[in-house]
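Lab notebook, bench 4. We co-purified these components, and the gel suggests they stay together. Before we commit to crystallization screens, I want a quick structural picture of the whole thing.
Request: model the full complex, all chains together.
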Amino acid sequence: MTATESTDVLVVGSGFGGAIAAYHLSAGGARVVVLERGPWLEGKDFDHDYLLGSSYTKVFDFVAGEGMSILGGNCVGGGSVVYFAALPRAPRFIFERQGSIGRRMWPASIDRDALDPWYDRVAEAIPSRPQTWNDVSYPGGLWAACCNNAGHTANPVPVGIDTAKCTNCNWMMAGCRFDAKRSLLFNYLPAAIAHGTQIRPLHEVQHLTRNEDGGYRVHYSVVDDEDYRVHTGGGTIDAKIVILAAGAGATPVILQRSEQHLGTMPHGVGRYFSGNGERLFTAAMNEDRVRDVLGLSRPDGRAYEAFQIGKGPTVACWDYLDAARAEFDRFSLEQLYFPPGLGTILAQAPGVTSGPSWFGLEKKKFLEKWKSWLIIFQMTEDNNEGVFGPPPPTGNAYRISQQMLGRGPLRYEPTPQTLRGWELADQACRDILERDGLSTGEPWTNDVVGAYTVHPLSSCRIGDDPATSALDDRHELRNHPGIFVTDGSSVPCGLTVNPAMTIAALAERSMPGIVHAAQERGISVTYGAPSPDGSTNGRRGVTRLVPTLVPD
Amino acid sequence: MQPGSPGEDQARTTTLEAFADTIIPGEKRSPDDRAIAGVASGGGAVVCGALEVLNDPATGITEGLAYLAESLNGHAEAYAAEHGLEPDSTVPPFVSLSYEHRAALVQRLVAPGNPERDGWVLLALFSNMAFDCAPHLHTGEAIAAGHPGLLAMGFAKPDEDGLWRFPDYSYNRPLANLHPDTIESGSLG
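Here is the predicted assembly.
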């Protein structure tokens, strides 16, 4: 144990919530240290390899809970390194959602109009842009054609990808080897480092204690760079402000573990978790019907056989994102690539009436059609059912494998509303995909590791009601001044679309208030940095909003 | 896996192979192959390297294999008795079951609500992975060596530098109308 260091601001995690905070605070003049539990990898380190110990297993965390498992980033850059770079904005109706609490879940100060200028800031920083049909890979094109055949619209999704560099290798979940994915490694993080932010990889924060001066002491372990089950040391850092951005599967766990030192946590810490209503549906296409019904063919004459080709999700059907539909009846259907291993084990062979469907003989036959697979990612309105049980001794899980796999304390029992949303989304998938004999498919089983989310949310959420939200609308932890949460846990509910854009926009929106809080604690810092590349349109767009985000 | 007597090691291996073959079945390696039930053509999880994967300490399951194999055989004995199946003392109890009975027992073991399901789920997970992503091998080398699972799935070969690229990737034309509320950013307004 070394002597305690000190800094102005300690940021836990280097994904969207952490990177954006580190950039603005260090650009504004604060001393910032970022502790990241995962390794620090970059382009050349990202392997095209499923070998245990390759970047594919190093940069992920797969934590199995009861009824819900979470796949999340575990590296410098967090989710932005492993995600598919889909960056849609949340639909307007999302901000009016009530869930099961009988009143609006979002703070009164936030709706789509209020968030749009912050979305614009993020879109400029990353940058995000719409795809053309020429960018859309075969699976996305196939999904669009299926939707069209069923009388639906379909949209190429906006992405943070430099398509000129993209090779459509579909290894982007293991980190982008070709620097085409505009992860945080290319914008907020290098800009933060240029302003003096220190990033320390393989530093896993365990808990916080309070100092007499009103600041906090952050207690961390140092994780072995190959075997994450092994801790090689530890230490503490004092900070006047702590920003938690460890991800919705880890931030509440750190706070729960800190409760014995800091005092009672708000009720919303570790409750109201949302898996973004996620569910997956895998179909095996009938190649002849794809050619005959949809008129699709590739230059080599094949109709499809292109599941492996592309860049994650490229096309979504947003027809069910209709504000006129009842809450829990709205969802998006997005084509998605999920690689073998994580993306195959839960897929069920269609048409199995007796015997196993996710393993066994029929499953093997289904795997042999892998080239003709199409996966549809359903993002529905779930009911914030997730609750975290007692924290494990360290980290956010009992680690099983040297990397990636662990058992965590999350418990998720889907309510009838959530189950209804999944059922409606399943029906819609079948209606589109099985029409005219195009394919047969099944949703992934929830019987193995529960439901499955790659977009954990809401486990420490913002809101106006202290009974159902852990944070106020400036992202400060209730009754624990100086602790802020800026990651996906702060998002109040499932969004029916990929949430990265909204997580980032909320983090951007929280910055003026956090800078103000830092100033009140004597830190010399100002708000007003341009975009990481120096652009200023986004800053101009939010200037009028900044005064509304600091206390009178 | 802790080494035991040669007989114990053999029984454990055969049992775990039979489990892996239940997850992704394959054809027998030889006429007297008892571990592999032989209900499918082509290679299954076993020839894809399931035991190599399970015995890699990186998985975190290796230390528990002896217990799991023993427990699996205990469940198989009970299952056989329950169904009035004739015991075959020449092979471990799970291996003596037909494929259909193995699959039915595994379904029971991994079912939601079984308090001891975690170990069986892990065994199933890594057995499946041996077939569909060969996590004990470099992927490019596995494909070059003719890994039966990746080959059966049609996983494409990498370029000469070991990286994958798909220059032919798009139908290159509009294939649906856009949602009428689409705005300039590409999102819904």
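The mean pLDDT of chain A is 97. Worth comparing against the SEC data before the next meeting. The CA atoms of residues 455 and 499 of chain A lie 7 Å apart.
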